[in-house]
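quick one if you have a minute, typing this from the bus. below you get a single protein, a line of residues and a line of whole numbers that encode the local backbone shape. could you go over both lines and see whether the tokens make sense for that sequence. anything you notice is useful, everything is just below.
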Amino acid sequence: MADHENLFHVVDADFETRVLKSDVPVVVDFWATWCPPCRAIAPIYEKLSDEYKGKVAFAKMDTDQNERTPMTYGIQAIPTMIVFKNGKEVDRVLGADPASLKRSLEKAAKSSAL
């Protein structure tokens, strides 16, 4: 994952600083290593992180390693991707759905350009 500079891992301890206080919208992929749909969407998520560089930041949070944040946002199924802007959830995509994710990113990228 090191070759994607717009993609980073977050944990409960740095979620507020890196996601909620970000100057740009951030999409967070809530995932786990044992989840096949999570692994299926991962390469698409990485590609999108390159495509939206400078417009939307991309984070990943392992739900097995971090329980507080997924619980706070009511994550009940993974993968779930949540778009945050100005510290608030503005959109949510459930499941490995690249088309819905792309629509959410387009919306977030447009709103951040205003």
